[in-house]
Amino acid sequence: MAATKPRENDDIGTETRRELYRLQIEIRDAEKRAYDLFLQNLIKGTSHLSLGQEAVAAGFGAAMKKGDKTFCTYRGHAHTLARGAPIEGVLGELMLRDNGLMRGKGGSMHLTSAEHGVMGSYAIIGAHLCIACGSAWRAQYLGEKDVTVCFFGDGTTNIGAFHEAVNFAVIWKLPVVFVCENNLYMEYTPIGDVTAVEHPAADRAAAYGLPRILIDGNDADVVYRTARDAIAKARDGGGPSLIECLTYRHSGHSRADPGKYRPPGELERWLERDPIKIYRQRLKDFGFQEAQIEDIDAESKRKVEEATAACKAAPQAPSELLTSHVYADGGWAWRN
Q1: 39-to-35, 44, 97 alpha-carbon distances in Å
Q2: Phi-psi domain of 301 (left: phi exceeds 0; alpha: psi -120 through 50; beta: other)
Q3: Are 17 and 286 in contact (CB under 8 A)?
Q4: Beta partners for residue 151, in sequence order
Q5: What share of the chain is helix, strand, coil (3-state, %, to 5)?
Q6: If pLDDT is split at 50, 70 and 90, which confidence band does 6 have?
Q7: From the CB of residue 244, how many other CB atoms can be counted at a distance below 10 Å?
Q8: Can you give the pTM of this predicted structure?
Q9: Phi, psi of 233 (to 5 degrees)
Q10: Given its phi and psi angles, is residue 181 left (phi above 0), alpha (psi -120 to 50 degrees) or beta?
């Protein structure tokens, strides 16, 4: 990557670039710690990491405003952290501790923090796209200015709910941004093996009257600029956008997946396009000193260490949570 001198007319600026790097490195460190805790048997079940995909979450997280709404998939740790949820709350939830975002009731695949605009992580493929339309329709109906951003994987583009949601959003000109994180694999199957077009989201946008937006999902600057423009369009009444971010997960689909189905050399090629590696160099190109970058790295590691200690010391979630908030009245009793 050629060095770029800092420019006075840079549209991103020093503070936003610092924030983009901070978000990426904190997401990376927190998820690596989650993996370590899983190996220590302190995180039960399974979870799905975004190692290698941090630039998408960071770019959108930096572009969104307080009050905007995020809808995630089961791979939602990164997007939850990118909206400002504390590392302790995320790790605590994964460890089923009482200090978790949902006091341990949701776990990895259902991370939610309405306080931070994260309106849920959804384990059912495609289920949240239609719900995101409802969120955007509510804002439109009430005349509010928040924007809904809905993240999903490449496999979701072959689900009926994807097509229904995009069509509905265009017809009603809803303030929603659909973001496909195309990491090439729908679980263990290459998306290209089961899809009629090369780019499963971008190449289908024209069918709904939307522009084709295909971007480098490993470059946080590119993601941020695209997110900023799409969110501004939605906030100003210009309707939805459909964005496909090309990226790659460094690990398997979930903790139980060694990823041996990937062809030789593919992972190594993508590691050269690691978003953290790209952005460290970007900061240097724009005048950041190595010591400044190392300070951000050190602060991230400090936060993760403190969060880990707090979560290990926190009590397990109380059993009475199992029968709370099952129904809208906060209880669990069946009413006929």
Answers
A1: 6, 10, 17
A2: alpha
A3: yes
A4: 179
A5: 50, 10, 40
A6: low
A7: 24
A8: 0.94
A9: -60, -45
A10: beta
Measured distance CA(80)–CA(201) in Å, rounded: 23
Single-letter residue type at 213: I
Residues 110-114, mean pLDDT to the nearest whole number: 95
| pLDDT tens-place string over residues 275-304 | 999 999 999 999 999 999 999 999 999 999
Matching residue, tokens 């978790």: 100
Residue whose token pair is 């936003």: 16
- In degrees and rounded to multiples of 5, residue 151 shows phi and psi of -100, 145
Report d(CA 239, CA 230) in Å as an integer.
9
> Alpha carbon 289 to chain centroid distance?
29
Cα separation values, 86 from 78, 93, 232, Å: 11, 11, 27
Report the candidate in 164, 181, 171, 156 with the shortest Cα–Cα distance to residue 60: 181
pLDDT tens column, 212-242: 999 999 999 999 999 999 999 999 999 999 9
Q: In whole angstroms, give the CA distance from residue 2 to residue 27.
A: 27
Per DSSP bridges, beta strands 148-153 and 176-182 are: parallel
Measured between alpha carbons, how far is 93 from 101 in angstroms, rounded to an integer?
Answer: 6
Helix extents (H) in the chain: 14-39, 54-63, 77-82, 87-94, 127-142, 160-172, 220-235, 266-271, 275-285, 290-313
Q: Could you tell me if 104 and 93 are in contact, meaning their C-beta atoms sit under 8 angstroms apart?
A: yes
259: three-class secondary structure by DSSP:
coil
State the angle between helix axes of 54-63 and 14-39 in degrees (0 to 180), rounded to the nearest 10. 130
State both tokens at 279: 């952005």
Cβ–Cβ under 8 Å, residues 77 and 49 = yes
Q: How far is CA 172 from the centre of its chain?
A: 25
Indicate the DSSP class of residue 260.
T
Going 271 to 277 to 281 to 286, the CA torsion angle's sign is positive
